[in-house]
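Notes taken during the Thursday session

The instructor put the following on the board and asked us to keep it in front of us for the whole hour. The protein is Peptidase A1 domain-containing protein. We were told not to look anything up and to reason only from what is written here. First, the residues (630 in total):
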Amino acid sequence: MARALVNLAVGTVVFFLLFLLSQSNPSTSPPRLLPPPHHGARPAMVLPLFPSSKNSSRTFLHSHRHLLRSDSHSSHPNARMRLYDDLLLNGYYTTRLWIGTPPQQFALIVDTGSTVTYVPCATCEQCGRHQDPKFQPDLSSTYQPVKCNLDCNCDSDRVQCIYERQYAEMSSSSGVLGEDIISFGNQSELVPQRAVFGCENEETGDLYSQHADGIMGLGRGDLSVVDQLVEKGVISDSFSLCYGGMDIGGGAMVLGGISAPSDMVFSYADPVRSPYYSIGLKEIHVAGKQLSLNPSVFDGKYGTVLDSGTTYAYLPEPAFLAFKEAILKELNGLKQIRGPDPNYSDICFSTASSDVSELSKTFPTVEMVFGHQQKLLLSPENYLFRHSKVHGAYCLGIFQNEKDPTTLLGGIIVRNTLVTYDREHSKIGFWKTNCSELWERLHITGALSPTPSSSGKGNSTESPTTTASDGSPHYDFPGKIQIGKIILDMSLSTNHSYLKPQINKLTEFIAKELDVNASQVHLLNFTSEGNSSLVRLAIVPSDSSTYIYKETARNIISRLAEHRVKLPDTFGNYQLVQWKVEPSTKQGKKVTVYECKDMVGAKLYGGGYGSYHNSGDWIISLWSVGYVET
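Then, after some discussion, the predicted structure tokens were revealed:
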């Protein structure tokens, strides 16, 4: 999956010339920040274009340039959107955009290092097979081509504006610029807006092969979605990303301002120094001890860059060596083992537990300190990744950036962290949270329109697959339900007699595509309907849990409803006809708080951990009322 990066042999003069050009001409922008690989170390992954174990490189040669509520200082709405996939497992995070009238859906990789959004065009004969159908301008009543003008590169006939992307591993994207209505989904306060985007006419290399449809550019530049919306005056000059944790993918994104949590940590982000999102890192602490480093070590070349498209973190040589030494000193009692890939000299440790929540008992905390002593606390999941071949083993996800003095912080650093790119005030904020429960934690209400209808059976919540007016689907559940089962009714275009001997393989494929264990997928019913087949499945919690997280349930339903589950052609086409959820039957009994003493560990659902008092009553160490497993 790791991708080797090419060192940009760009001198200071050349860089600033490119930067100045990017400000005057939206069809060009500075090259992408790509630190070089080095022998034996895992290279940086800058927004991999598809999940791959191959080593390849890329660089831009030519580029186009209420949790609470919206920002309390602004009357602008925001576009609240979901993130899908996982940066380490899938190679990227994607979001959904709907383009045109009627809307056509696309899965786009979110990238703070790119400044244009593009999707495959219906006229593209050199485009790969992606997640969704190609964009068809002729089917959109609101599409308009961007005519040739002084501010863009034009086609050979000087009729229409064009764009081009070239990458170092010889993949490329090129096409025409068009303008149409872009919708942001049913969670968005922001109404659909007209925006310019790229309509691809040719893809090569990895761009041709990737599963995602295209890229959503969030960088600084006239063609960036953020810049266009800000220029129109419909959002504040800000956006936020929140990546899921080690065991939970997905996350959330907000285009526009939000009210920052009171304990959010901020760093100054210099908008002049470079076109990248640079922050003012001053110190790193390991287990409470400051690394003996001059702060200038984090200020070389482009400084400290935060990039949503980079997977891991990369430190200049002096900083990495000091960090490595401090970590090894703290973990001298752990057994070091070989990494999962013999091509890299990963630093890995074997532990007794594979529970992410237990990592902080073994691995030290790490702090990144910004100006004014603003400290970002990194938990182990922010600098470790799972060993793919050894159960209970973890490897460092922070590497040396060879001889490049740039500090590059990728997605691993901000797992389960809300990152707000407040461009208006030249600062970037960090807030540790559970990104899969971001909206609940930020107390946003009414953002999802519920579509349940009573099934007449117990307390289950049932809903067909429905579509909002902007083309985005609804999936929602009652606020207090703990989901014990998801029932899925699917129609497949395959003949019943042909599918019957393959039914077990079908459930295995579905489990794999939904990122659940095969034991969690149960076949409830299998019938014939003409030349098609009807399948009813149940998704149940894993053996280690009594319920399914709501965000996990939404992810499962949305993957099927939005046809992001890719099955072998032998199973034909499928349609999610209906879904419903049923509450967990293992919620336990409600208990009252008692004095904490004579405790033994017991799992508490609904608030922390409980303990058993020898009088026979359950008592709660967090002094709260909850449920214990009975």
